[in-house]
Every structure is written in structure tokens, then in C-alpha cells.
Amino acid sequence: MIRSLHMKIVMIMVLIILSLMTVVGAFLINSVVAFYLNDFYSQISTVVSDQDLYRDLTQETAAERSGEVSGVEMLEQVLGAYAGELGVNGSNRNYYILDETGAYLAGTDDEYGPRLEYTENLLAVIRDRSVVGDESNVAADYMDVAIPIDRGDGQYIIYIRDNRDTVDELNDQLFILIMQALVFGLVISVLLSLVLSKTMVTPIQRLTDGAERVAGGDFSDKLEVTSRDEIGVLTNTFNDMAQQLKDTIQQVENERNKLDTLFLHMTDGVVAFSSEGLVIHANPAASDMLGTSIDNTTRYHDLFSDIAALDSVLSAPDYLEGERVQGERYLELLLAPFDRESQAGALVVIHDVTVQRRNEEMRREFVANVSHELRTPLTNIRSYAETLSENAGQMPPNTEKKFLGVILNESDRMTHIVQDLLTLSRFDSGHSELKLGRFSFTGAVNDLYNAVYMEAQKHGHAIELKLEPELPEIVADRERILQVMMNVVSNAIKYTPNGGHIVISAGKQADRVWMEVSDNGIGIPEADRARIFERFYRVDKARSRESGGTGLGLSIAKEIVDRHQGVLTTVAKEEPGLTVRMELKVEGPGHE
Ligand code: ADP
User: Fold this and answer.
1) Which residues pair with 85 in a beta bridge?
2) Quick check: helix, strand or coil at residue 252?
3) Looking at ligand 1, which atom is closest to the CA of residue 544?
4) Phi, psi dihedral angles at 146 (to 5 degrees)
5) d(Cα 590, Cα 592) in Å, to the nearest integer?
6) How confident is the model at residue 76 (pLDDT cuts 50, 70, 90)?
7) What pLDDT is stored for residue 402 in this prediction?
8) Which long-range contacts (CB under 8 A, 24 or more apart) does 454-462 make?
9) pLDDT band at 159 (very low <50, low <70, confident <90, very high)
10) 489 CB under 6 A from ligand 1?
11) How buried is 130 (Cβ within 10 angstroms: 0-12 exposed, 13-18 middle, 19+ buried)?
12) With a 6 A CB cut-off, is 500 part of the ligand 1 pocket?
């Protein structure tokens, strides 16, 4: 309670009133005492310095001399006459007539007179009769004056003493008055300070409520500025500060959202660990790549202990690298320490390098295949040429001719391979432009049929053409599309034992035309089917080579169809043999 501003203000006011009244009271009471002292001594000295009185006190009268009255009686008479001026009233203030030793002779207070206290003033006169004892003493509870008087019959001391009861009474009344004023003042000050504190505390209270709201994240309302004083300025400043805080928080929020979105959708996996090895953050890509669900209870040890210990990552000057094969994926890992003000830890970035690895592998395989494919005919050419040169002129002409025929065949094959490779490399480098034009799809299929008919006949194949009527004209590179068709049909002829059955069919489906070539030949095992479009891939290498194949025909065909944004694929069928299907857009590549 005492901590509230209300109470503090009330307490301050009370303390101020208390201290003020104490000072004023003490000052007043002291002043009253001092005033009475002064008044007493000045009254006595005025009376004493009165020549008449002095004469009356010191001059011996005739009656005294005659012994009718004693000196004491005379003094009593004189003092009685001056009692009013001296303020002697027989109760508070009395006079005492003493002998030179201070013994009581007569006075207005016979009760106290014989027991009179030897005060400083009295003693001073007893000791030295030439002085008047009128030293005031604030600390004493009385006021007194001792005056030596010499009269004919002896030496006396007139001692006037006031017991200060009047002062004390006055002081008591003053004290009561001060106390009443104090109580009154306190009540007024408490009431005033309550009103005052309310006007001061209410805006502060509103400010506090506002600050609490802002601290709780609620920036909806501005505080109303009701005054132009310091609190008004403070409220304004607070509103500005809250606005700035709101803007800053908004900015930070936006940045965080951006980062979160980035983090969420990035293809690289990222996992952050605390220095204790617990996951702080992980994105979905990381869980996906590592093939495990990652949450805040997952530990570094469970995921990457095989790559590097957490301690070595945390103490690494830069970053550590690692690799992992996860199922069919190749993962490259970068492990780096991070050190933020409040938190240190380790960050692991997982990069899926499967495609690069596969490409590298394919490139290596490709180079090996090319070398192999070229070496075989070269070896043949060399060995036949060697035999011819070693036996020049000694060989039967028939054998010589046969050898030369082999050399020619092999060099043709090499030329073939090199040409195919060149075609592919032109596709790869993007140097091979399609010569698009509109032509009749039916016409193209018919031309194909006519071109392969003789070759099929040679192998005793029955070749059948099934064309849907009224196929549209299409936009494509006619020459290349025919190349694809020829390749597919040639394969059907090649890989079907003599006397087979080949069907070429074509039709239209939605905005596409299609052509299928089916044979009842040796077919391709299910597992190999998807791979026949790869470069140099051959199911049966010996057979392919025998029939002059390079293993590049279908990959070139696929490349051409892809560039037309069409589809070249095998069709799964129950019957033996293989069906290859080509689909092309009627309006050519670039049209939806
Ligand atoms: P190749 O020059 O060897 O014929 P391709 O690229 O044209 O090369 O064909 C790739 C491989 O696909 C062939 O070696 C062959 O094993 C297989 N293949 C292609 N067409 C057929 C088919 N109609 N029947 C069976 N196998 C086929």
C-alpha cells in the first residue's frame, strides 16, 4: 500500500505538516518563554530603578528609629504598596524579605519562605552585596531577582520569585492549540493530497496500463494525451515509442516470414542444433532427404554422428564436409558452427547431389562406351589391314575382297557412330534447330511404310498399316520426325525374328497425333524397358552390334521427340514383342 503513488504523496504531505507544526510549535513555545522572562526582568528592573521606591526601601523612617516598627515591617509595607507594579500576587509571584544570610524574615508566602531555595541570584547577593541578582535562566522553572537593601537597623535581601506557572499554563494552552491545528492541518493535507495525487496518478496509471498492453503485444490503441505537462509529453513519447516498436516488430516479422518461407521451400535440407545437440530448427527438405522425421527431441547424435562428432563441429574454425548415400540419394553435408549472442550451436546443410552424381556417372559411362564402341571396329580394321599387309599378294583374291569388305563395313560403322554422336552433341549444345513446317501426318506415315516395306519383306515380316481417316496436318520438323519413325520401325524389323508381324498404326487424340509400332519379336524385359532411351543402352549388345546398331538410335529419337514437346515411350502389353508409341502436338512445340 505504501508503495502506491497515492500513499507516497499523502505521506509526504503528512510529514511536511508534521515537521512544519513541530518547528512552529517549538518556536512559539520558546518565544513565549523568552517573552515572559524578558517581561519579568524588565518589569522588576523598572520598578526597582524607581527612585521613590528605592528611597522608601533604604531610608530609615522616624518610627523605626523610635523603635515603634521594625525595619522588616516597614519593608513589608513598602513592598505591599508596590505589589501591583511588581506583579506580586501571592500565588505565582511572591516577594520574600530575607536577612543578609538569606534567612526568611517576612513575605507574601510564609509557607515556602522558610524553605527558600538558594538560587544563583540569591547566592550572588549573599556573597556580594554590591550586586543585584537578576541573571535570567531559561532552563530553570522559575524567575527570580535578589536585591540587597541596607536600612538603618540592618542588612536585608528582597527576593522576588515567580514560579512560572502562568508561562506553563500558557504553554500548555499553546500546545493544545498547536495540536488542534496539527490535526486540522493533517486532515486537510490528507484530503488535499488525495485529490492532488488522483490528478497526478490517474494519467500515470493510464500510461502504466498502456505500457502493460504494449508489453503484452497489443498495439491497437494509442494513449490519449490529456495534458501538456510532463506527463503529456511522456504520453506522446510513449505513443511514438509504441508506434516505432510496432513498426520494428512488423519488419522483423516480415523478415522472419520471408526466412521461414525460404527455409520451408528451399530444396536444400537445413537442420540447426543447440550446443547440447538438440534440434532447434529443421526444414521439411531435411526430413525428406534423411528419410526420418525430425522434431525438437531429435539429437545430433541420432542423425550425423557418423559424419563428425558435435564437439568437432562446434570447435571447427570454418566448416566440415561429409557425404552420405541415403537410399538412392547421394547427399553432400556441410557442418558449420554458429555463434549467436544468446545461443551457440551447429548448422547442417544437406545438399542432394544425386543428379550431379548420376550425370557424372553417365558422362563417365558415356566416355567409356564411346571409347569401347570405337575401339571395336578400329581393332577389327587394324587386324584385317595387318593381315592384308603381311600377306600382300599371297592371299586368294576372294579372301582379300572379303577382308577389304570387313574393313569398309567397320569404317562405315565408325562413321555411323561418329555421326550419331555428333547429332546428339548438337542436341546437347542446343545448336540443332528444328526446321518446323506444316505437313500431312498421314503422308509422313505412308512414306515411312513405303520406305520400310521392302526391308520388312526381306526378313519375311508381314507389315500392316492401320491409319485413322482424316488425320490432320501437323507442325513439326518432317525430316527428323521421319528419322524417329524409321528408327523405331527399323528396330522392330531388327529385333523380330524373320517372318514376324509388324503393325504401324496412327491416329489422333485430342490435340495430339500418335503413332504406334508393334512387333511380335524378342521384346524387352520389363526392367530394361525404361532404359532403352539411354545412350548406348542395348539389351543384347552382341545382337545389336551384329545388326549394325550403335545403341544411340532411340536416344536420338527421344531427343527429337522431346524437342517437339511430344512423348516417345514403350507401351506395356500382354503379347510378346514390343510396342513403341510416339505422340506429337498437332500445332507443334510451343502450343498448349
Ligand atoms: P540400336 O542401334 O542398338 O538398335 P537403339 O537405341 O535403337 O539402338 O535401341 C536400343 C536397344 O533397345 C536395342 O539395342 C535393343 O536392345 C532394344 N530394342 C529397341 N527396339 C526393340 C524392339 N523392337 N524389340 C526388342 N528390343 C528393342
Assistant:
1) none
2) helix
3) 3
4) -115, 125
5) 7
6) confident
7) 92
8) 455/490, 455/493, 456/493, 456/502, 459/493, 459/496, 459/498, 459/499, 459/500, 460/498, 460/499, 460/500, 461/493, 461/496, 461/498, 461/499, 461/500, 461/501, 461/502, 461/519, 462/500, 462/501, 462/502
9) very high
10) no
11) exposed
12) no
Q: How far is the CA of 490 from the centre of ligand 1 (A)?
A: 9
Query: How far is 506 from 581, CA to CA, in rounded Å?
Result: 9
What distance in angstroms lies between residue 532's CA and the mean position of ligand 1's atoms? Answer: 7
pLDDT tens string 445-465: 999 999 999 999 999 999 999
In the numeric block, the cell 509422313 is attached to 444
Q: Do residues 464 and 504 lie in contact, with contact meaning Cβ atoms separated by under 8 Å? A: yes
Local structure of 444: helix, strand or coil: helix
522 lines ligand 1 (CB under 6 A): yes
Is the confidence at residue 1, as pLDDT, over 60? no
Mean pLDDT of the chain: 88
C-alpha cell at position 271: 537442420
- Which helix (H) or strand (E) segment holds residue 288: the answer is helix 284-290
pLDDT of residue 551: 85
Q: Please enumerate in sequence order all residues whose Cβ is within 8 A of that of 269, keeping only pairs 6 or more positions apart, or say none.
A: 282, 283, 285, 286, 287, 288, 289, 290, 348, 349, 350, 351, 352
